[in-house]
Write a structure and sequence with these properties.
Elements lengths: L1 H9 L19 H9 L3 H11 L4 E6 L2 E6 L2 H8 L11 H4 L15 H16 L8 H20 L10 E2 L2 E4 L4 H13 L9 H16 L19 H28 L9 H10 L12 H32 L1 H14 L15 H13 L9 E2 L4 E3 L2 E3 L4 E4 L1 H4 L3 H4 L37 H18 E4 L13 E2 L3 E2 L3 E7 L1
Parallel strand pairs: 2-8
Antiparallel strand pairs: 1-2, 3-4, 4-12, 5-8, 6-7, 9-12, 10-11
The chain binds protoporphyrin IX containing FE.
The site of protoporphyrin IX containing FE (HEM) has 25 residues, from helix 12 and helix 17.
Length: 500
């Protein structure tokens, strides 16, 4: 009876909290119900629970954290644009990314230090071409795409390339790791890895995918009970996540240290030099953070990591979709042939004349929502939402996949239909694109413009030059068999880019 009473008190929801399960699973809270309903795809479990309680704002307890899942586009937009919701919870999944288990970086920090770091990084990356039109950077991306096209057309040249290309078929999403990573590193350090040295980028990409696939959108059970990392099989998962993270950090740190050793405050070569100058003005802190080396490492990782694993996975999801829709490929190719021809690669100047290609990318991001539950937010002070009371520190998950599939907004959300974003004259109509794949408000994805530009250029270049072919023995991909981790990803698959 005492245990029963303790569990009831421990799992008690705050008063006037959004509807959700009344009785929680001992020890796990409603996270337990979600594991029972759909352990592999927690965002789908949240949709089922929401439907059961007939609510678009589901109130649950994740172990001791009161939490809500917002499964409605209009409410999500409101949440993302209100300052009280801009916090991030202190999740163990985030801490294990740092060598000393400190909260570092941009993704999982909040408060004035997050604001300061986010502002500085975005402000000064911009000077080197991040998130805006910048001819020097566009030329570097063009070279990177030509190198990718060479690999796809002429086959592997270097030993490491044989691991991602066999008998003319390339492994997806891995084949895009070097192009996307180099396009970002060029902005940070002013340099790209030459093709013969790209094995380090392929390794970093594989580690990033390990983290993406072994994490989950709710922070994994390790975030609620970190001590479980000592118990098998949780210890195995912990080790995978930890080792993958530390290997990526070491890689970024090795680049940073190379520049630090030759840093001259009077001669700025790249973004890193500007950050080093700022570091010289600050005293390093242990628990909180300012401009210091471990913060710079995680700060850069937080950009490098989604560039190498997130944007490439979004492309891999799209290629699978396109295998099911050859007519969409044909329409993109026709459009690109008419506007660009085949004498040069498509550029960002061509983009307004390639509305169907742009619409295909947008539709891909809607139907295959990369981050199905967003990145958890935290309520920073007691507040209300749609008449419910939310106490400080409530966790807020945005059901991005749910809202991109709401019938009331999309009509036929299950159909892959790029035309939904075009007007009667075939022009792109942004007012019709209600999707929010990058979030919104102050926590908006810091890499949105970079990602949109690079994905557009990659898609247009590949469609201009290739047809997509599967191995003769392969069936069309089963789009329901995807992996839900921190992001949704396809299982690795092999594809031939057949020259047109
Ligand atoms: C298809 C590609 C991508 C998608 C769909 C995506 C989506 C998202 C989403 C949903 C968030 C969380 C927003 C929130 O908290 O409400 C986020 C955050 C973030 N993204 Fe992206 N992202 C992508 C690519 C990138 C790239 C390429 C970069 C960097 C080069 C990047 C950098 C970041 C950063 C730094 C944050 C954390 C922002 C903060 O908490 O202040 N993302 N992204």
């Amino acid at each position: 009876l005492l245990l029963y009473r303790w569990l009831r008190v421990a799992n008690k929801k705050p008063t006037n909290f959004p509807p959700g399960p009344e009785y929680s699973v001992p020890f796990l809270g409603d996270y337990g119900w979600m594991l029972v309903i759909n352990a592999s795809h927690l965002h789908k479990a949240a949709i089922k629970l929401g439907d059961f309680y007939r609510t678009k704002i589901l109130g649950i307890s994740l172990s001791r954290f009161p939490s809500i899942v917002v499964n409605d586009l209009a409410v999500a937009r409101e949440v993302l644009n209100r300052r009280e919701f801009d916090g991030r919870p202190d999740l163990y999944l985030a801490r294990l990314r740092d060598k000393r288990f400190n909260r570092r970086g941009i993704f999982f920090t909040d408060g004035p230090a997050w604001k300061e770091q986010r502002w500085f990084i975005l402000r000064y990356l911009r000077d080197f071409g991040f998130g805006r039109r910048f001819p020097e950077h566009e030329a570097e991306v063009n070279s990177e795409l030509l190198s990718l096209i060479d690999l796809l057309r002429d086959g592997p040249k270097y030993a490491h390339e044989h691991t991602i290309m066999k008998d003319g078929y390339v492994k997806c999403p891995n084949v895009m790791f070097s192009c996307f990573a180099n396009s970002f590193l060029q902005i940070v350090s002013g340099e790209r890895f030459p093709r013969e040295e790209c094995d380090v980028l392929f390794n970093a990409g594989s580690n990033a995918m390990l983290f993406q696939r072994n994490g989950d959108d709710y922070g994994t059970i390790l975030s609620f009970y970190p001590w479980m990392r000592h118990i098998y099989p949780f210890s195995r998962r912990f080790n995978t996540l930890r080792e993958a993270s530390l290997r990526i950090n070491e890689f970024i740190q090795s680049i940073i240290e190379k520049y630090l050793q030759t840093h001259d405050p009077n001669h700025v070569r790249c973004f890193l030099d500007l950050y080093f100058k700022q570091m010289e003005k600050c005293t390093p802190q242990e628990e909180s953070f300012t401009f210091q080396l471990d913060q710079l490492v995680l700060g850069v990782v937080d950009f490098f990591f989604p560039a190498i694993s997130g944007a490439t996975t979004q492309m891999a999801l799209l290629f699978e979709r396109l295998l099911h829709s050859p007519h969409v490929v044909e329409r993109m190719q026709q459009e690109i042939d008419d506007v660009v021809g085949n004498g040069r690669l498509p550029t960002l100047d061509d983009r307004p004349q390639l509305p169907f290609t742009e619409a295909t990318l947008r539709e891909g991001m809607r139907i295959d929502t990369l981050v199905p539950s967003g990145i958890a937010h935290r309520v920073q002070e007691d507040t209300t939402l749609q008449g419910y009371d939310l106490p400080k520190d409530t966790l807020v998950l945005i059901g991005m996949d749910a809202m991109h599939n709401q019938k009331e907004y999309w009509g036929d959300p299950e159909c892959f239909r790029p035309d939904r974003f075009l007007d009667a004259n075939g022009k792109l109509c942004l007012a019709k694109d209600l999707s929010l794949p990058f979030g919104a408000g102050k926590r908006l994805c810091a890499g949105e413009t970079f990602a949109r530009n690079l994905m557009f250029l990659t898609l247009a270049a590949l469609m201009q030059n290739f047809n997509l072919r599967q191995r003769p023995s392969d069936r069309l991909p089963d789009l329901t068999k995807r992996i839900t981790g921190v992001i949704i990803s396809p299982r690795d698959y092999w594809l031939r880019f057949e020259p047109r």
